[in-house]
């Protein structure tokens, strides 16, 4: 566990609070005036390569996060969830330009729309939601949505998540039609979600609009799992195929250098 700094003393309710919110971890990035909320819910998918249940701490706080992912057993649920009032008190006085909602499916947190609303009205923040888009709550106070597509071929999606992707693909279109800024994300997992499937995802996205950006993430090996991480060359091949259909394709490697001041764990 990384050093915990700047941790304010607040009173925390041990069970799910009345002013319902499922936030278990909060990180602040001073350089970007960004606040990151990690939510914990009963996810509506069971992804075979789920990182969220392997590591509860924000990766930005962990210099050795790749090693931890490859060695950690699955994590148990957090013992404490912050209420909305506790969360707002925790961040009082901070300069916040950007709020990010991530973790174990934030859209299933009944308090998400209210938290986004409070951030927008108190700080004028630009609110970004990471989601699997199986279900969509009220997104009035969300500015940008990054949808993790997993796969677009129904059988493959089902094999990987145990779910059906009809709703995700419909919601992806709905978000686009809403005029919100939209990005897609997909993880390349050799032998599971290969470059050919990533090209299918790019075709699906381009059928809506070629300008929607796609981010390809290389899978990081998890402990006890047979899937391996892709090589840099495999990620580049997938990106090249996707670029035949989309104007903007980014890809991430695990070796991205940290920029700016170190992030601070608030809770
Ligand atoms: S959607 Fe996200 S949180 Fe849910 S199982 Fe998949 S990776 Fe894990």
UniProtKB/TrEMBL annotation:
<dbReference type="InterPro" id="IPR007197">
    <property type="entry name" value="rSAM"/>
</dbReference>
<keyword id="KW-0670">Pyruvate</keyword>
<dbReference type="GO" id="GO:0016829">
    <property type="term" value="F:lyase activity"/>
</dbReference>
<dbReference type="GO" id="GO:0046872">
    <property type="term" value="F:metal ion binding"/>
</dbReference>
<dbReference type="GO" id="GO:0051539">
    <property type="term" value="F:4 iron, 4 sulfur cluster binding"/>
</dbReference>
<feature type="domain" description="Radical SAM core">
    <location>
        <begin position="27"/>
        <end position="258"/>
    </location>
</feature>
<dbReference type="InterPro" id="IPR034457">
    <property type="entry name" value="Organic_radical-activating"/>
</dbReference>
<keyword id="KW-0411">Iron-sulfur</keyword>
<keyword id="KW-0456">Lyase</keyword>
<keyword id="KW-0479">Metal-binding</keyword>
<keyword id="KW-0004">4Fe-4S</keyword>
<dbReference type="InterPro" id="IPR058240">
    <property type="entry name" value="rSAM_sf"/>
</dbReference>
<dbReference type="Pfam" id="PF04055">
    <property type="entry name" value="Radical_SAM"/>
</dbReference>
<dbReference type="InterPro" id="IPR013785">
    <property type="entry name" value="Aldolase_TIM"/>
</dbReference>
<protein>
    <submittedName>
        <fullName>Pyruvate-formate lyase-activating enzyme</fullName>
    </submittedName>
</protein>
<keyword id="KW-0949">S-adenosyl-L-methionine</keyword>
<keyword id="KW-0408">Iron</keyword>
């Amino acid at each position: 566990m990384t050093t915990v700094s700047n941790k304010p003393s607040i009173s925390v309710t041990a069970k799910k609070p009345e002013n319902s919110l499922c936030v278990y971890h909060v990180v602040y990035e001073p350089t970007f005036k960004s606040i990151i909320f990690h939510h914990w819910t009963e996810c509506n998918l069971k992804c075979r390569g789920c990182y969220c249940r392997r590591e509860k701490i924000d990766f930005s706080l962990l210099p050795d996060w790749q090693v931890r992912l490859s060695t950690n057993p699955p994590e148990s649920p957090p013992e404490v969830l912050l209420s909305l009032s506790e969360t707002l008190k925790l961040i009082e006085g901070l300069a916040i330009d950007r709020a990010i909602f991530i973790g174990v499916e934030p859209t299933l947190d009944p308090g998400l729309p209210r938290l986004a609303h409070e951030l927008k009205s108190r700080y004028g923040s630009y609110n970004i939601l990471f989601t699997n888009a199986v279900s969509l709550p009220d997104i009035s106070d969300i500015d940008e949505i990054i949808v993790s597509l997993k796969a677009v071929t129904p059988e493959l999606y089902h094999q990987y998540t145990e779910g059906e992707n009809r709703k995700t693909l419909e919601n992806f279109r709905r978000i686009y039609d809403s005029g919100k800024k939209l990005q897609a994300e997909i993880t390349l997992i050799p032998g599971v979600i290969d470059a050919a499937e990533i090209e299918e995802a790019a075709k699906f996205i381009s059928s809506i609009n070629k300008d929607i950006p796609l981010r390809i993430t290389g899978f990081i090996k998890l402990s006890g799992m047979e899937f391996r991480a892709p090589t840099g060359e495999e990620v580049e091949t997938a990106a090249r195929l996707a670029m035949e259909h989309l104007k903007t394709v980014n890809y991430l490697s695990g070796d991205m250098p940290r920029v700016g001041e170190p992030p601070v764990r608030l809770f």
